[in-house]
Design goal:
mainly alpha, 4 helices
Amino acid sequence: MVRVALAWLPYGGVPSDELLVHFGLTEDQFVAALWQIVADGHCAREDARDIAEHYPRSTNN
């Protein structure tokens, strides 16, 4: 998930239809899963910083 999220950064993030096809998740669910990965420490610090900048936590969670 982290690799996909980072790969799509230059394009404004992963499109919703790609998230549904590849992960079966809505955008909010995908972002929540990314933040869980970050919280669990399963990505590099630089990657966590990029995720924080481009995939902000949803206020709906």
